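Hi Prof. W.,

I finally got the DUF4148 domain-containing protein prediction working! I wasn't sure whether to trim anything, so I left the full sequence exactly as given:
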Amino acid sequence: MKAKIAGLLLAIAAAAPAYAADNVVEQLAHDSGLSVRKVQMILGNRTSFAEYPYTYQRSLEKFQARIGKENYNQLMAGQPIKLRNGAEVTRALVIAAR
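And this is what came out:
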């Protein structure tokens, strides 16, 4: 019985960082006015979809304008930034959500 409880606690602890990362993406999306998918596109790896270059550039400009160019540069450099609600965010947390 104790082994089952310990296993359950380990599973919950392992899922906590993924949940926190999803929450970070949602916070960035809320602050920038973009969808979660577009925030993931901006902070993630480039893809080969035909629509990607056009959508990426427009979304990137909007994202930078909303969160600030300095905050964007810090986020991409792996440094933490503060959101409007006071939470600190790093790119590593955002990438972990994928």
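The beta strands are 81-82, 88-89. Does that look reasonable to you?

Thanks,
D.
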